Amino acid sequence: MQEISQHIAERLRTLRRAEAWSLDRTARETGVSKAMLGQIERGESSPTVATLWKIASGFRVPFSSLFEPEAVGEGDDATGAARQAAPASKGDAAGMAAVPLFPFDPALGFELLVGTLAAGAVSESAPHAPGVVEHLVVVEGELEVRVDGVWRRLTAGEGLRFGADRPHAYRNPGQGAARFHDVIHYPRGAGVSPGDGIGEASSGSDSASGR
């Protein structure tokens, strides 16, 4: 866990240097307080998943880039099995853990995360970058997702697609941990250089599919 915190600290410093942003400017762009940003950079705080999303959205970078040294490259298509078998983390203060199963692929414009939410936990998420869409499928347990103020309940094998560029939240109403896969799609114009050949994704409508 300490290694992850140190890597995130280094990534945050690198991103700030690349943009030539002060801590004050970074706080304005991300919505994360200057004090918290300083603690993260010094490795004194383990940020929540929600805070990491704010940082990623503020810098217009994929979420997985905060954990991965590089985006996925050609020939890396078999790397996900080991990642899936490894525990994401013990969870943050909100009971949410997330780990890249497949990091951001600039040619396809997406990343795949494995999420775990503790029983009874609620994790709030600020809007991601404009045009970002989540495709979420519950693997184990049950999960409720709030979009536009409406909660939708999903059980294992069910999925939901929604525009993640608006406030949303996750809630676990079950007695055990909920585990889910989350494909994050970054269309053209989302600021993460997804590469050629990716069409615009609609973020204005939600869809759910049963087993």
Tell me the major beta sheet. Answer: 6 strands, antiparallel
Average pLDDT, all residues: 83
| Overall strand count | 10
Instruction: Note poorly predicted spans.
Output: 70-74, 80-89, 193-205
Indicate the proportion of strand residues: 25-35%
Q: Report the end-to-end length measured between terminal Cα atoms.
A: 35 Å
Cα radius of gyration in angstroms:
16 Å
Strand order of the largest sheet: 1-2-9-4-7-10
Structural class: alpha+beta
Question: Which SSEs are present, and which pair or pack?
Answer:
Elements lengths: L1 H18 L3 H8 L3 H8 L7 H11 L20 H6 L10 E10 L4 E8 L4 E4 L7 E8 L1 E6 L2 E6 L3 E5 L4 E4 L6 E8 L21 E3 L2
Antiparallel strand pairs: 1-2, 2-9, 3-8, 4-7, 4-9, 5-6, 5-8, 7-10
Give the tags:
211 residues, 29% strand, alpha+beta, 24% helix, 5 helices, globular, 10 strands, single chain, six-stranded antiparallel β-sheet, four-stranded antiparallel β-sheet
Question: Could you explain the architecture of this structure?
Answer:
With 211 residues, this protein is an alpha+beta fold. The chain is 24% helix and 29% strand. The chain contains 5 helices and 10 strands; from the N terminus they run αααααββββββββββ. It has helices at residues 2-19, 23-30, 34-41, 49-59, 80-85; strands at residues 96-105, 110-117, 122-125, 133-140, 142-147, 150-155, 159-163, 168-171, 178-185, 207-209. The model is unreliable at 70-74, 80-89 and 193-205 (pLDDT under 50).
Question: In brief, what are we looking at here?
Answer:
This protein has 211 residues and is α+β, with helices and mostly antiparallel strands.
